[in-house]
Amino acid sequence: FRDDQNDRAGLTVSPGVLHRITQFWYIAAGLELGTYTQSLKWQQQIEREGLVTLDTIFPSFSTHQLSMGPTLSLTRNSKLSQIEFTLKGIWKQFDKVLAGSSVDKPGYFFILPGFNYEYRYRTGRRVNFSYTSEVNMPSVTQLYYVPNTLNLLSIIQGNPDLDPEYNHSLRASWWYFDQFSFTSVFALLGGGYTRDKIGWSQYTNEELITVMSPVNTSGESSFYSYISFSTPIRKLGMKISLSSHENWSKGMGIVNGVDNTQTNFIHAFRLRLENRKKQKWDVAVGGNLAITDAKYSISSMNTVYYNTSLFTDLNFTPSERWSFEADANVVNYN
Asked: I want to staple 282 with a disulfide (CB 3.0 to 4.6 A). Which of 27, 266, 278, 289 is the partner?
């Protein structure tokens, strides 16, 4: 077995000023200061053939992150719409500490633009467009380069030279709600690109032992859509909800020194039926279907996964003091 102790602590302070330019326009400026710490301690015990026990305490590892940068935003607010432009510059110092001693202290600087627009063109109807950018720092588990040998046939080793991921996301959504029929529709379309995406490099040696390590890849692209619909069926005294989710992504890994491009296409569907009047009984039944089509440039690894499930939720409240709940799920994965 292995005993993991992973601690995290952080603090962010963002003082700023806000100035009204005109009746609808505002400008804000500030300074973001932050600190974030992650620490990892491992203790591992391996039993050999039921006779010999190997107890190993690994050296502690932690990261200490200091961040600082200016922020600027320009906002327009009106009765029906809101638009906001943001710009942030962020400098990060990333200290890596092994057994109490600093082993590396790189510095990074990023420009993070952003945009958001929302328009409520009618009662119960609105559209939204947004663009965001963010930085994801590697975790202590990904950086810790002492091998994890709990499974001697599959060894995982961190990579202390990982760079941060730089992510860009763009999305558009539409929301509709009819207050008379209680019918609602929500649609979402989006995509993203992550530079220096952290993926996996793996190789199998002559002893048929697989060694895996995280690495920065050229990048990952993704596109997704989501649509949901719900409406009451008054004659039957119930409400029906339908949803569909599509997700496409393309990334890269390394297998035995060869670049392996992976493309995933996921189709997910959900149906839920529930009673409308819930004074005492709240009953819901439904099902989920997910299909994952995974393709690799190393074609022998291509796979299609099917995940289906049926569920029911039951809640009975006979009085203010008593409530009974039960749920059941049947899942099939192949």
From this structure: 278
Q: Name the residue type at position 23.
A: Q
Residue 49: the pLDDT is 56
* Sequential DSSP letters for 234-297: GGGTEEEEEEEEEEEEEEEEEETTEEEEEEEEEEEEEEEEEES--SSEEEEEEEEEEEEEEEES
**Residue 54 corresponds to which tokens in the numbers above?**
């190997």
3-state secondary structure of 141: helix
In degrees rounded to 5, what are phi and psi of residue 280?
A: -120, -40
d(CA 111, CA 168): 11
User: What are 90's two structure tokens?
Assistant: 């962020």
Phi and psi at 12, nearest 5°, equal -130, 135
- List 286's β-bridge partners, or say none: 272, 311
Contact indicator for 53, 46 with CB cutoff of 8 Å: yes
Q: Which two tokens stand for residue 63?
A: 């990261």
Q: For 60, phi and psi rounded to 5 degrees?
A: -70, 150
> What pLDDT, in 10s, does the model give residues 222-253?
999 999 999 999 999 999 999 999 999 999 99
Question: Which two structure tokens, joined as six digits, stand for 314?
Answer: 């039951």
In this structure, the dihedral spanned by the alpha carbons of residues 148, 149, 155 and 158, taken in order and rounded to 10 degrees, is 20
Q: Closest Cα partner for 232 from 178, 270, 276?
A: 276
Torsion sign (Cα): 138, 144, 150, 156: positive
Residue in 90, 93, 89 with CA at minimum distance from that of residue 37: 93
